[in-house]
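Why do we bother with holo predictions? Because pocket geometry can differ from the apo form. Keep that in mind while you read this record for 2-acetamido-2-deoxy-beta-D-glucopyranose.
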Amino acid sequence: MPFKDPCFTIHADRFLMCRMTGIFSYLSKVFFVGLIVLVTLMLIRTLTYPSQQPNVGQCSPSDADFIKLTDAMISNFQEILQIKTIAWSSSNIMLAEIKQVHHLLEKSYPHIHSSKFIKREVVNTYSLLYTVQGSDPSLKPYLLMGHMDVVPVDDQIWEVPPFEGRIKDGYLYGRVGYHGGLEFRLKSGNPPHRSFFIGLGHDEEVSGHQGAEAISKVLAARTEDLQFLLDEGMTVLKGVLDWVEPAVALIGVAEKGAVTLNVSVEDIPSGHSSMPGKESNIGVLAKALSRIEQNQHPVMFGRGPEKALLEALAPEAAFPLKFVLTNLWFFSPLVTWFLSQKPSTNAAIRTTSSVTMVGGGTKINVLPPAAWGVINHRIHPAQSIQTVSIFK
Ligand SMILES: *[C@@H]1O[C@H](CO)[C@@H](O)[C@H](O)[C@H]1NC(C)=O
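The structure, written out:
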């Protein structure tokens, strides 16, 4: 059969259009084949993406390190929860109560406080540093951080009294946790191999300058090189994310930084308000602050820990989300857009800038000699104070 060009038989002025349609239909076929290949590859990746969860197995009461809960342990713990170690501000901490915690710790954990492997030091009168000597001195020590103070509490939003240590429906309500695990190991004649420190500050909720900072100075003076530092944990989320069924225990591996800048405008001379110039210091400042609000810092998704978190969640997620999260190489722009829609998730992917205070003007009928505004930045781990403070 001879070749028959479908465009040849039609009128000359339609010839070109017919050829173009042919090219488009060819291109759209290529596009569709490409799309099918792409989706297939992404599906294969979704279905074969391995879970990153370590297989730790079930714990059982017959395990050597199984700590059996006793009534004495619960009442010791309740007693500590009943002490109101509130830190209102750095100059208003309930210090007598902090001292009470020191005494209760000694009473509740006798093995720790009598062990020849453990040195207890009081740092800056109210903070505590325990040095636990492990059996293998070749291993670098680590540091466990915690604190004895708590933030003030609004009784109204608690289901139970916050300082009672009440047990309700199988849960013990309160804030604070102490070293029961170490006490158990010492009691069972099984001291740790690796040395470590326990640092307990007394002003964590109001800066940590008096506690954690003082402890770090003591450690630095001994030129201790740490294997790692573990501070208090983050929350366990369940049912917070759609399509993620299991509870998710978040591990904090980075923290946002902060820098607060005070910008001021003083260029325009003051004078009587009856003869103003085109602009005032307040007007110029207002424009600048508005520009800062409208020009957010760039998205840093993929340059901090948030991408790794989503990738670790991917295998545990249900289908539509799982498909997206296992293919972040393709969906990053979409995910970034989605995260930027809510203040809480937007804060996770970029440096944020909040205008928090303004001031200016002296009198109702005087042009303001100056105006100032304060911007509080929370810095993404991939940026620095320097990158955030440059104004263009
Ligand atoms: C910001 O700076 C101005 C002077 O330029 C000062 O008067 C004002 O008190 C400062 N604001 C804050 C909150 O520090």
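The CA atoms of residues 239 and 245 lie 7 Å apart.
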